[in-house]
Predict the 3D structure of the following.
Amino acid sequence: MIKIISAAILCLLLVSCGPPQDGHGTHEYNNGTYVGEYKDGNMHGQGTFTSTKGTQYVGAWKHGKMHGEGTYTFASGNKYVGEWKNDSQWTGKEYDKDGNILSAITNGKEMLAVIEENVTNRLASKGSGGTDFDKGLAAYKSGDYATALGEFRPLAEQGHADAQTMLGNQYFVGRGVPQDDKTAVKWYTLAAEQGNANAQYRLGEIYELGHWGVRQSFNTALKWYNLGAEQGNPYAQYNLSVMYGYGRGVPANRETREKWYTLAFEQSKSLAEQGNADAQMLLAELYYNGDGVLEDLGYLEHYVYAYMWGDIAASNGNFLIFFVKKGNSGYWRDKAASYIPDEIAKAKKLVSECVAKKYKGC
C-alpha cells in the first residue's frame, strides 16, 4: 500500500499553474494531464489523471486529492480498485495485471493474511516444498544464488513484489548475476511502487546517498523512507530518524527524530525476538548508539546489550538487508566490545541466556 501525491499538490512546484476554477476542464501539469471536474481551482468530483510516468487514476476527487471510489493503475499494469481517503488507499484490493489479488486493504491497513493466502494460491510450486518464492529465498540464504535467481526472476517478471525486491538485491551486490546498479534500481522501484517496504527502504537509502546510478535527492529519499516507515519497516524508520536528526531534506526536528528512533527500536525488538537476523543487527546498532532505547540502562549497559544482539545476529547470519557491511556480520558486537573489556563475560552470559529463551524477553 502506498500513498500517492496528487497533481494539485505538485502544482505548487510548477512554474505556472492555471487549472479551471469550476466546472469541467482539462489541464496539463508538468507530471501529467487531468481531465475532469474542478471546484475552486482544485480537482473535485469525477476525473482522470494520467501521469507522465505511465500511471493513471480514474475516479473521485475532493479538494485536489483522490477521495472516494477510484481505480489507480500502476506503470507495471497492477491496479488498486476501491475507496480512497486523502490520497491514501482506504478500503479495496490490489490486483496484478492478470487480475490476481495481491493484497486487500481495510480502513487503510493492509490485510497480511489475505496477501499470504493469495500469494500461496497463486504461486504454488510443482512439488511439496512450498512456493517458488520460498524455494528461492531458501536458496539465497544458503548461498545458492544461481538457484535463487532461477526462482525469483520469473516471479518478478509476473509482478511479484517480494521477488522483485530479492532480484534487486542480487543485482545490487552481484550475487548470481553481474553487479548492475541500474537493473537493481529498476527492480527495487517496481517493488516499491507496489508497496514493498524493504524495497522502499532500499530506494530511500540509494537516493539519500546518491550512489548506484542515481542522483542524490533527499526529497526522494524522504518519500520512500516515509512510505516504508509508515508500514512499520524498522530500517526505514531508523533512517528517517537520521534524516530528521541532521535536517536532510527537512528542517531538523528533535521530537520527530526521537519518535522514529523509538518506533524503530520497538519494531526491531519485536522482529529480533522472532529470530530476524537483520532486525537483531539493527537492534545492536540502536543499543550501541543509545537511540530509541526504552529501558533505563546505564552507560556501559548499552554496550553490553549491543554486544549481545550483535553476537546473536552474527551467529544467525542469513542477512537480507545488511549485506552492505562488507561481510563483517559481527560489526556492532566488535565495536561494543572495545568499550566493555571488563564486561565481556557478562555480555556472553546474556547471549547464552537469550538464545536459551529463543530471543524472548532479552
